[in-house]
Amino acid sequence: MRQSELYKLLRSTGLEVYFYEADQSPALPYIVYLKDGEAAWGSDGRNFLRKDSYIVELYSARKDFANQEKIEKALDSVGIRYDATEIYIEKEKMYLVSFAFDITRKVEN
């Protein structure tokens, strides 16, 4: 799965989706996702596999079980395994649920 496909998957939740940062404090709830790293490996001087690490963040005014479940179902639908954490950001008065995962794919030559 490429980054453009991940964007489409996240948009399927019906929420606003931003890459890396949201523009001028959008209305809650919304999703921000970012690429957290990448690695490639192979043999004989060629890379055959690429691992892209992503973080998807759901921001909401209160604990948002329904939208969290939409994200979980979207990730589950394509077999993405993830770790989720959540915090309350006191300064911003909002909740953050963060999903961290890797996507491994074959390198196209």
Structure description:
This protein is of the alpha+beta class. Helices cover 20% and strands 49% of the residues. It has helices at residues 3-11, 65-77; strands at residues 16-19, 30-43, 46-60, 83-89, 94-106. It has a five-stranded mixed β-sheet with strand order 1-2-3-5-4. The two termini are 16 Å apart.
| Poorly predicted tracts of residues | none
Strand tally: 5
Rg computed from alpha carbons, rounded to a whole number of angstroms: 15 Å
Largest sheet: 5 strands, mixed
**Could you say which structural class the secondary elements and strand pairing correspond to?**
alpha+beta
What share of residues are in beta strands?
A: over 45%
> Helix count?
2
Residue-averaged pLDDT = 91
Q: Residue share in helices?
A: 10-25%
Strand order across the biggest sheet? 1-2-3-5-4
The coarse overall form would be: elongated
N-to-C series of helices and strands:
HEEEHEE
Gap between N and C termini, in Å?
A: 16 Å
